[in-house]
Every structure is written in C-alpha cells, then in structure tokens.
Amino acid sequence: MPHTFTAANIRREAAALWQLAWPVLVGQLATVGMGVADVAMTGHTSAEQLAAVSLGASVWSIVLVTVSGVMMAINSIVAHDVGAGALAKVPHAVRQALWKALGVGVLAMLLANLATLVFDHLYLTPRVRDQAALFVHIISIGLPPFAAYRALYGYSTSINQTKPVMVIALLGLLFNVFVNWLLVFGNWGFPTLGGVGCAVSTGLCMWLMLAAMLVWIARQPAYRPTYPFTHWEGPHWPEIGAMLRLGLPIGVTYFAEVSAFGAVSLLVARYGVVQISAHQIALNFSSLTFMVPLSFGIALITRVGQALGEGQPVRARFVAWVGVGMALAFGVLSALLMVLCRQQIAAAYTSDLAVQALCVSLLLLAALFQLSDAAQVAASSALRGYKISRQPMQIQLLAFWGCALPLGCWLGLGHDMAAAGFWIGLTVGLTVAAVLLGWALHRLSLARIG
C-alpha cells in the first residue's frame, strides 16, 4: 500500500512535505524576523524604548495573526479545487478573497487603534504608554495590504508555488532592517525615532510585499491556468460569506493562542520594564522557533486538501500524521536549543544584565512547551485541510482562555511568580490543546475513510 506507515513511505511523504514547506519556512522566518529585528534593535537603545515596542508589538501581533487566520480560508478552498482538477474555479475564489481582505484589513486597522486604550489602564509611565500607543497607530497602516497579501499568499501556496513567499519575505526583512537602522538610531541624517522607527519600517514593508506579490503573479507562467486578474469582478457576497464561515473560526483560533500570549505581556507590565522586556524576548524567540512547525502546518493544508480533493481520504490521513510527526521531531530540537544556548540568546537581544538574567530562566520554561506547541499547530492545520475550523477554535479557546490564562493569573498574580507563573500556565494550555487536537484529527481522519 502506498500510504501505509512504512519507513519508505514516511520518508517519501516527509520529502514531499518538506519540498513544499521549506520556502514557506524561510518566508515565515523572514516575516517573524522583522519582529525580532524590531525588538533586538530597540533593545540596544534603552529598556524604556524596548518596553514600549514590546507592548505595542503585543497588540500588533495579536491583530496580525488573527488576520492571517481569517484569510487562511483561501488555502483550503484552492487546495481542494486543485486536487479535484477544478482549476476554473480558482480565479473567482481568489478575487473574492481579495474583496474579503479589503474589509478584514480596514476593520483590523480600526480595532488595533482602539486596542491602544488598554495602555491607559496599565501600570506604565506616561512616556512608555504614549510610545507604545504611537507604535500601534503607525504600524497599523500595514494591515489592509497585509490582509490582501495573505490572500495571494494562500492562493500561491495552494497551487504549489511557495518560492515567492520566501523571496518576497526575505526582501521585506532586508528592507525592514535597513530602515530600522536609519530610523531607530538616526543614521545618515535621518531623525532618531527609537521604537517608532520600527513601526514606520514595518508598516511600509507590508505595502511593498503586496506590490511584489502582485508583480510576481503577473509575470510567472505557473499562474497562467488560474490567473485571477483577467477581468474586473465585484464582490459576491454568498462566496465571501462562505469564506468567512470557514476563515473566522481559524482567526478566532489564532486569536485564542496569540491573545493569551499578548494578555500575559500586558499583565506582566505591572512588574516593570525588566519583566516586560525579558518576557518579550523569550516570547519573540519562541515565536521564531514556532515558524518551523507552522510552516509544516501550512504545507499540510495544501497536501491534505489536495488529497481529499482527489477523493483519497486514506492518503489524507497518512499525510496528516506524517506532518504531525515532523513537527514533533522539530519540537525536540528547538527545546534542546533553548536549554543549551539560553545565555547566548538572551545576550543577542539585549545588553541589559537584569533583563538577560530573567530571560535565561524564562527560556527554560519556553523549552518545556516546544513539543506540545509543535503538535497542536500541525494537528489544527491538518484539520483545516479537511475544511474543519470550528472544532479547533473551540479547543483553542478552552486550552488558552479556559486553562492557560486562569492558571497563569493564579500563579503569576496570586502567588507573585510574575512572568514565570504565566509561562507555566501557557505550557499547560498548549499541552491541553495538543492532546485534544490530536484526538480530534484521529477521529475525523478515520471517519472520512469510512
């Protein structure tokens, strides 16, 4: 049987999945690298600037990741159409996804700016509060183009074209770092803006990445059979509604996880700039390692969706579990990296010795949840390949808002463990999510075989 779990079959599927995932991985790492560059470069100005960027980035990342989830419906839709050989349906789906992106992006921009009101109720100095709010106000100009970019990103990856997401993200990272260098530190006669310079850089970068993706799609022959820009097409509300029904639960799922981490950042703020900064560095590096299993997950949506579109549920189950296994294997490696290199990681982000010392202890806690974090993102992505998004949403809400945050508050605030208590709660929440999502994938994949 070509899809039984033999060593040879697993190697073949792992190679196929990696072929699809590695450009996505490079692109994801480059995208997250923008946030890493923002925090690391600001960390070498002052602890106050780092705290402001950390808080502003917490709001930005919550909104950004939620938008990514809402836009991810196009991945499953196009993958199923490609698997079924219905290429003629793809252009219409992409055009409607772009209309959806316009509405989602504008709404996200408004919500991000409203979210800065929470800074008025935290234990912050006026300067940190004002700088964090200004960071969000400026960077939010990148949300509408980001939503459109993610629609085209999902279209491209689902027709097995992952190279552009890698190349464009790398160019975006180079642009971001260069403009940061100009504006954060005031080089070449530019004004010294500190953390606000990072917001200007990232907001502009989102527009450039969208433009680059449009040019790539227009010029590459691989897009010709499904090229979406042959003619004008207005919004088709039933199609957009169907995309929202699939995409909104994914967005809520992403929100449940990232908002739990973001809420921790806001709650830790009461303990001062050292706790905020150390927490943000540990979270930032964890987000960087998370990009590997996330990239496997994005590839899984395509592989599983195409297998189901071809009417092969046995292959879809095989693909799903190979992907989960690959994510778990990387989880082991990333945990070892955090344990063995925690001192060097902390020093790379900041020269403040107090922040370094606390960050080292938080990285040990971050190492604990690498396996469960990898497993839960791979399993939830495989479920999305089945066009199932509501159940993962329910599980993530339970895991993060029902387990992680209450436990984190009990330990962090009630027992005065500060950031460490919240990280213990997050570890428990991720473990709950991994177990429940794995069980859901097991049952669904068997049921589809019949």
Short description:
It comes from Duganella lactea. This protein has 450 residues and is an all-alpha fold. Helices cover 82% and strands 0% of the residues.
Characterise the protein shown here:
This protein is an all-alpha fold and 450 residues long. It folds into two domains: 23-248, no CATH class; 271-449, no CATH class. The protein is built from 16 helices and no strands. The protein has helices at residues 7-42, 47-71, 73-83, 90-115, 126-139, 143-158, 163-185, 195-219, 237-268, 273-309, 313-340, 342-349, 353-368, 370-385, 390-414, 418-449. Helix 10 runs parallel beside helix 14 (370-385). The chain is globular. The chain starts with 6 loop residues before the first helix and ends with a helix. The mean pLDDT is 90. One of its GO terms (cellular component) is plasma membrane. It is a multi-pass membrane protein. It is found in: Cell inner membrane. It holds the Pfam family MatE. Its main location: membrane.
Please count the beta strands (DSSP E, at least 2 residues each).
Answer: 0
Secondary structure class reads: mainly alpha
Mean pLDDT: 90
In terms of quaternary structure, what is this?
single chain
| Main beta sheet strand tally, sense and closure | none
Helix-strand sequence: HHHHHHHHHHHHHHHH
Discrete helix count: 16
Count of folded domains? 2
Describe the global form. globular
Termini distance? Answer: 18 Å
Rg result? 21 Å
